[in-house]
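Morning run. Coffee first, then this:
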Amino acid sequence: MAKILVEDREENTRVPFLRGILIRSLQDAGVPFDAAYELATETRHNLGNTLVISTQDLRQKVLDLLLKKRFGKDVITRYKKQEANLAVKVEQRNGQITPFSRLEYQHCLETIGLASEEANDIVATIYKHLIDRRIEMMTSRHLAELTYRYLRQSSELGPAVAHRWLVWRDFVASGRPLIFLIGGTAGCGKSTIATMLANRLDIVRTQSTDMLREVMRIMMPKELVPVLHTSSFAAWTAVPGSLETGSNVVSDTLLVNGYRSQADLLAVAIEAVVQRALRERVSVILEGVHIHPAFVEKLSREKDAVVMPIMLGVLKRKQLQQRIRGRGSDAPQRRSDRYLKHFDEIWRLQSYLLSEADRANIPIVVNSDRDKVFREIMRITIETLARNFDNTPQAVFA
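And here it is:
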């Protein structure tokens, strides 16, 4: 089927006909997704071999279909109002004016633990409110208030979710740094989750403890500190006297002692990264197997910062094996065969880390789905923020 171009004669521009854009436009007018998909598909079919169509003619064809399918008057009216190409702009707290982006605002709502579908529904409701009232300029405070109101009125979400929004907006406005400490054994997805958090929360500073270990290895030669020059699950081999046992199976005690020896060495570098972030009041994400619960407990907390330790886990042996095997194909330099050879030690080390996290009341998040993990981490974060939150909506949006 030939590509169709949509011509805007006033702007003297041509862009491809995109069914996804039409679907979203129909949804903005109040058409359910399934019906919007069907209408957009039928519109594309009706255009046949047309090469160029004006925006006005395309809109008329869509309106004819809406009338033919007997959609209500409200839907027709809202779709017609879009013809004026209403562009909503938002004035930020610093006076900067930015266009209202539905996708960006959906991602913003997902930070309070909403699923993509839930966030999309709220954004569609807000956008409909703006279109119906022909609002072309609004403050970020007004937009946040409007969001709070619709979250609270939602039959599926309600006051509890609206309160999460209130807590999160108060934190964002405070400018306090957020320090994520993401621990877990090899293959549990620490790097992936850290990258996703950084992207979704606009955190520009991330650091892996593996990279810190590489720097320390250059500074401290193997002859001087042998335990630093092994993997965390094999650090026991560098503990004095460990190889004199004559057994091919390492005991839990020896495995943990080797890991703790390496983690204790890394603790100095990890704390230095955290303290610098605190001094500069910037958010940072640290991830790695060396984020040990005992280190988290000793870390000095400042009231002005939010320190969020999270322990990731994969609770099924086969799933963790598949993750390690898959990471080897995605990044061959990580040598998955070596990790699989020592899988039993990795599995037992995870059991130790999860038990220690449970003892220290550090949240444990099972990594089975990235989006679910993100929502769970954000819910835990907001629950932590809510412990010291006693503001009212009027105070937050003032």
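The chain has a mean pLDDT of 85. Good start to the day.
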